[in-house]
Amino acid sequence: MRGLWVIPLTIALSVASAYGQGSSKSLLVTPEDRHNAKLLVRPCTPKESAPGSSLEVIRLFSGRRPVFNWCEALDVSWLPNANILRFHTAVDVDYSYTYTIIKAASESPIWLVVFGEGLVAQPSANPSLDAMNDLLRSAQPMPNDSQLESASILYLFLVGRENHHGFFRRPESQHPLSTADYRESYRKNGVIRVVRLTTPSGEWKFTFSLQGQSLHLDSVVDNGGN
User: Fold this and answer.
1) Quick one: pLDDT at residue 8?
2) Measured between alpha carbons, how far is 178 from 43 in angstroms, rounded to an integer?
3) How far apart (Å, rounded) are the C-alpha atoms in residues 208 and 77?
4) What is the side-by-side order of every strand in the sheet holding 175-176?
């Protein structure tokens, strides 16, 4: 599984004034826009969809100018200030691309995670660790042991591997990501926590550690690697 890359974006959210028809608010969703759910996937609002078509973002695509077909947002109850948006291109015969834009908090960098579906390279787990750990550092409060499965599912959403059937996605109505849809095992050893999730796409192993007052995702291994 190769083909995913993560880039910290240096885009100031002031681009909202250039692409938001004069609005002084961020193009990304604000805490007031959120629904109260642990992990809630919903269609993007028009304001949220704007960053994917802005010239500031498109310049980062190494000459590619993707045309986004639809957008979805993820609301996370313990990340009240985070913005997590996933943009999808249309299916082109037997593949499509998806771009996840992540901003953990107002002072955080913006991260771009790119992956493919179908007969294109699937994502590699490790390059998106920086983006995930930026989110974990901004958690309010820090996820406890009972929330590690939810944190693991959040990571799978970032790389497009949460519990879903088939290669190609299509626009869906608002829906939660439920931990009940996964088979899970958990092991604790000092400051280390290991979570294993079984999904239709395979088994994933997540190794977390406590680092001071924050939780850190040390590694992700797919297909049950040791």
Assistant:
1) 63
2) 17
3) 20
4) 5-9, 110-118, 95-103, 83-89, 68-76, 39-43, 175-176
